Amino acid sequence: MDFTFTEEQQAAVEAAKAVFSGVAPDAVPSPALTPGAVSEDLDRPLWSRLAAADLLSLVISPAYGGGGLDPVALCLVLRESARVLARVPLLETGAVAMTVERYAPREKAADLLPRVARGELVLTAASQGRTGHDPAERAVTARRDGTTWILDGLQTAVPWAHGADLVAVPAHTPEGNTVLALLPRTHDGLALTAQYSTSGELLAELTLDSVRLDDADVIDAEGAWEWLRQLLTTGTCALALGLGEAVLTMTSQYTGKREQFGHPVATFQAVAVQAADRYIDLRAMEATLWQAAWRLASGAEGALPAAGDIAVAKIWASEGVRRVVQTAQHLHGGFGADTDYPLHRYHAWAKHLELSLGPAAAHEDALGDLLAAHPLG
To answer: Which end of the chain is less crowded, N or C, counting CB atoms within 10 A of the terminal residue's CB?
Structure first.
């Protein structure tokens, strides 16, 4: 088994490190001190730098001006972005772009993807449903009316929706199928209501009231939503891993300098054991992440469908990132709660990632269903 990344994937990591090296995690007001959103928009200058470095086109095929890389490469870049809490919809744009290329008609892909690659088009996805606990595809209905579709329903906690150009919205038809609507942010019948994440970022509740879309703006190919959902879940695991690694590094540096009784607290057995446990969490998060991303990228068969590996990755990511930030807060003492120090921001982002696309318990249920449906011989 070869765990080595390809030269192209490693080059993407180096490019991402160069772009994110200038990003400050505390560049916006603290969510602990801000009653509303920490900012009304994504980090547009960073978005432009990502486009200039060809990182927005990374997973788009060369036919549309991209690099033609796979979900593993996207996860590698997401991992770097989370280390600095980059405020950009890199995951959502990349996942929706890959879904458009794979499932949308060629004409639609040719219209959208070159603009995404150049950074001219920002994409996001509605994946939380009405409450964050129900299937997203059940929250909106879609029915045909001649050559158009009519959509009604509500999606909550949509990230970056106020700054995105298109929102991918899953919906169910009267026949029981799931379609994926590519909905412009400003459209008749669509209303956005401000919501706020634990990280202080601006989210949106989308209310769709008889929204009409042409056939070309609705992907009705079977499997499109499931593919997008799996990409979003796996990418969220990559974000959790990068954030957790950054937090453990901060903790190591702090405990190596902080002294008690004339010795760095990192030399105390109780501190070292807790840090070692969190290191093991991160290695488990990493192994399960790359297994899930590899299954998506390769399409390889396994004892369970790829959804099983993705569920395992999300279970570890949800539980692991929570344990990492909680231990970091404990080992930092009161300094970890200082709003002039960035650790509290990482804690807030970690909570958002833990719950994004379902907490660990939801994925444990999904894994149980898969095991029941696919008995291991």
So the answer is: N
